[in-house]
Amino acid sequence: MRTGHTVPTLTPAMIAIWVAFATVPLWIEKVGLYQYLGVEILIFATYALAYNLVLGHSGLPSFGHGAFFGLGAYGFGLAQLNLVPDLWFCLGAAVVVASAGGAIVAAFISHRRGIYYSLLTIAFGQVFWFIAIKSHAITGGEDGLLKIARLPVRLGVATFDLTHNISLFYFVLAVFVAVSLLLWRLVHSPFGRILKAIKQNETRARFVGYDVWRYKAAVLVLSAGLSGLAGGLFAMAQSSAFPDVMSLHYSGYIVMMTLVGGGLVTFWGPVLGAIVFLLARDVIGAFTTGWMLWFGLLFVALVIYKPEGLGGMFLRPARRKPAGAK
Amino acid sequence: MSIVGLLPHLVNGLALGLLFALLALGFMLILGLMEQINLAHGSLFALGAYFAYAIATPRLPLPPDMLQVWAAVPLGWRFTAAMFLAPVLVAPFGVVLERLMRRTYGRDPLYGLLLTFGMAMVIEELIRIVWGTRDYMLPVPRGISGGFMMLDLIWSTYRFWAAGFAIVAMAIVWLVIEHTRFGALVKAGAHDSEIVQALGHDLEKLRVWVFVLGTMMAAVAGVILAPIWGIRPHMGVDAVIPAFVIIVLGGVGSFWGAVLGGLLVGMVVGLSGAYASEWSMLSMYLLLILVVTFRSRGLFGKKSVLEA
Fold first, then answer.
1. How far is CA A315 from the centre of its chain?
2. What whole-number distance in Å separates Cα of residue A56 and Cα of residue B104?
């Protein structure tokens, strides 16, 4: 890690990743995949980056992040169906609802760490998931919230339609760029350095005089809000919001993505993880039933032998080489 | 609602609580000595149920004539055989799991949690590949199926029988832990593994046996609960969550904490079911959050490795 105080806002690696993503719609169908997969990868990459703020950058092993992603999806859908069908308003609603969920959880668990943090986030995740399933009148129960429209992007002077997957892809890419830039700045800000101190030794950080509780709460709320933003995009991409994404399975998937990609050691690891996870689902899934068997074994092998993940493998020889680039 | 109206919910909750306690005890055994959260505990529970189904119905990969002979045996015998054989068949999975986990000993317990979550996904997918995604029902022998009348209410015979069995199983585990040499070693190993090793005991072997015992308890709980809950691929995840809720609620490392936690969760689920049946499972999380907010180590918890 660099010891200097200034980390550039834009790095070559960052721009390379954005440009690489921008070319995806040009070739993704030529390699036998489909446009929607690109959208999904970007949404989950955004989600994984947001999640890694908690896991990788602050050392808080949340196992219930699916709840925030799902809250964002429902927030987006409900705002659109019941309030104002405007893209910016609905995405804002997704962020607000998920942040509020994050704040409730943070209020109860921010004095915890380690395994207890994991276990309590599982419990809270289950509470939200359960409520989503049982509140038929609001969320549509197990069938979910249907007929969520892909709203047009209104920019004052111009309006873009997002009904096609390619245009949606570029909109999601824009959000991804914004979120990754924000998180990059945040992680390398004084706030980010305090998070790192808390990750390394919470007690010491407290003795130095930082209000650890407040930092841990803030980072969870922030991560929840950005996860909710990804959830809102997902609701739009799927044209629906359903409780599955809030289940323990999905909460675990995001942990798997983040760890497999190398979120514990590199900023871009979660992006690589999202790519590997979704490609594995589609490519292994095309050849065999039970792709999770193979991905699960890969994950187990990585936990045992290489917790730094795939990103960590690239990182060894050249320091700080970005792992998300294709 | 009157007291009499609540009685069936209370009794059913108590029965459920005993089964939950049995499920949680295996989980806690592994947590106690190994200092590992085994999120695959539920998957071993599920495997127990599936193996029992294969043995009892019977759908076994045997030559047809042997299968016919086995199918002709009365269900009571097949069910009994399933109850004892299924845990034995699941035990090797526990041994494999322990082998894999060995690499994470001494590291942040988070790695064990992640590893076992991965293994839970793997086992669940294996179940889907072998048995498909449909639901199964484990048939119950006639002697303990059906219901009976008491206080003008209909009671499920099997639930009483299952609760009784859970008590017996837990009593056996208690005897093993409190009154055998093996149990003494397990407790000593959990307390101070270095000294136990220095005294010349093979801690590695001890760990394998603890894991086998925990695995078999999960499988037994799976067999007993299968006729009540049904058998489906994600039953493992459905089961491991109550187990960890009970452990955190009762306090990590406490036998009676796990039993009391199980009973509490069962009763709360049962009683809330009387007022809002749809929402009854939610109550156990709320109970957990409530208790842990005021007693951070649960009811009987001591300081443990989880707080590192």
1. 22
2. 19
Residues of chain A contacting B35 with CB distance shorter than 8 Å:
none
State mean pLDDT over B42-64: 86
Q: How confident is the model at residue B308 (pLDDT cuts 50, 70, 90)?
A: very low
Provide the 10 A C-beta neighbour count for residue B105: 16
pLDDT digits over A258-280, tens only? 999 988 888 999 999 999 999 99
**Alpha-carbon gap, residue B279 to B245, rounded angstroms:** 17
Answer whether B115 touches A (CB < 8 Å): yes
Q: What is the ipTM of this complex?
A: 0.86
What residue of B is the nearest CA neighbor of A62?
A: B110
Q: What is the pLDDT of residue B252?
A: 79
The per-residue pLDDT for A320 is: 47
Contact assignment for A300 to B115 by CB distance below 8 Å: yes
Percentage of residues of chain B with pLDDT beyond 70:
94
Q: Does B237 touch chain A (CB under 8 A)?
A: yes
Give the pLDDT confidence score for residue B126 in this predicted structure.
92
H helix count then E strand count, chain B: 12, 2
Contact A300 B245 (CB under 8 A): no
Three-class secondary structure of residue B153 per DSSP = strand
| Rounded (5°) CA angle B134-A248-A132 | 90
> Residue A21 has what pLDDT?
93
Do A181 and A192 meet the contact criterion of CB atoms below 8 Å apart? no
Q: Which residues of A touch B286 (CB under 8 A)?
A: 127
Q: Which domain holds residue B158?
A: 3-307
Measured between alpha carbons, how far is residue B289 from residues A190, B56, B109, B246 in Å?
33, 40, 22, 12
Tell me the C-alpha distance between A297 and B128, whole Å.
16
Count of the separate structural domains present in chain B: 1
Mean pLDDT of B110-121: 90
Other C-beta atoms closer than 10 Å to the C-beta of A177 total: 18
DSSP reduced 3-state for B301: coil
CATH number of the domain residue B58 falls in: 1.10.3470
Take residue B148 and report the two structure tokens written for it. 């009976």
Tell me whether B14 touches chain A (CB under 8 Å). Answer: no
A163: pLDDT strictly greater than 50: yes
Question: Nearest 5°: phi and psi at B272?
Answer: -65, -25
